[in-house]
Amino acid sequence: MQVEGLTITRPEAHPGVLLVTIDRPPVNALNLALFKGLRELFSTIGQEPKVRAVVLTAMGKMFSAGADVKELNQRTTEGQLARSVVSRGCFDAIRRCEVPVIAAVNGAALGAGLVVASSCDMMVASESAVFSLPEINVGVMGGTRHTARLLPDKLVRYLALTGRKIDARTLQSYGGVNEVVAPGDLMDAAFDIADEIARKSPAAIRLMKESINVTEDMSITEGYRVEQLFTTLASSMDETKEASAAFLEKREPRWVAELKE
Q1: Residue 244 predicted with pLDDT over 60
Q2: Does residue 96 register a pLDDT over 70?
C-alpha cells in the first residue's frame, strides 16, 4: 500500500515485522489525508498473514506535532464533525490492529501525536522524547481520554489544562512507556520487542491481542470469564498444540503459516 506521508517497509533483518514511518516534514503534522491513510493501513494489516508485528515511528526529530493547525484554523462545525469521524477511526484502527503495534517515539509526541502513540500496544521512547496535550493553546479539545490509558487523572488534567510537556522518564514512571533508551538505540529496542513477538505463534498472538482489547473495559469477573472463553478457543488450535509440543520437546516451534510458505 502507498500512502502519502507514510513510508511502509518490511526490513529483511526483521522477518514478520512491518515498519511504518510517518514522514511529513517538517514536524509530521497529522492532516486529514494522513489520518485517512493511517486508518486504511491499520484496518487492513491483519489481512496479511506474514505480518506479525508492526513498529510505528517517524522521520526527523519529532514523532508528531499533532493535528495540522492550518487545517484546524479552517474548521467549521460540519467539517470538524466529519474530520472527527476520520481521526477517531484512525486511532481505533491502530488500537484494534490484529497484530501488536510498537510505537518508537523519537521526539516530541504532541496532541494527536500522543494519541497515536497511546493507541499502540507498547511504547519505546527516546530520552529526548517529550509528550503534551497542547490543544488548549489553539482553542480545541481532545486527547484526554486516550492519554488516560497512560497516566492518572491528575496528571492528564495537568497536561490538558496547562499545555505543558512531560519527558519520557516521567511517562515511564507511570507505566505509559515500556522502555526509555538513548536516541541511537531507539529502533533496536523497538525491533527487539517486535522480533520476539514475531517468533511466537501468529494465531495465538492475534487471539491474545483481541482478548485484551475486548476485556479492557470490563469488570474483573466478566473480563476473566471472556478471557477463559478465548483460552477455550485457543486450546483446539493447531498452533497451540505445536507450542506445547515444542516446549516439551525442547525445540523451536514450527508454525502452521511457516509450513505453508
Answers
A1: yes
A2: yes
Residue with cell 474530520: 83
Instruction: For the chain, report the end-to-end CA distance as a whole number of angstroms.
Output: 22
pLDDT for res 260: 45
Give CA–CA dist 121/99, Å, rounded. Answer: 9
pTM recorded for the entire structure = 0.92
| Domains with residue ranges and CATH for the chain | 6-198 (3.90.226.10), 202-260 (1.10.12.10)
DSSP 3-state assignment of 254?
coil
Q: How many C-beta atoms lie closer than 10 Å to residue 6's C-beta?
A: 18
- What confidence tens digit (pLDDT) does each residue in 25-54 have? 999 999 999 999 999 999 999 999 999 999
Listed as own residue / partner, the contacts of 137-142 with beta carbons closer than 8 Å and 24 or more positions apart are 137/163, 138/69, 138/72, 140/67, 140/72, 142/111, 142/112, 142/115
Strands 122-126 and 179-181: parallel
Q: State how far the Cα of 238 lies from the Cα of 152, in Å rounded to an integer.
A: 41
State the pairing for strand pair 130-132/165-167.
Answer: antiparallel
Confidence of residue 67 (pLDDT cuts 50, 70, 90): confident
Joined together, the cell numbers standing for residue 133 give 496535550
DSSP 67: B
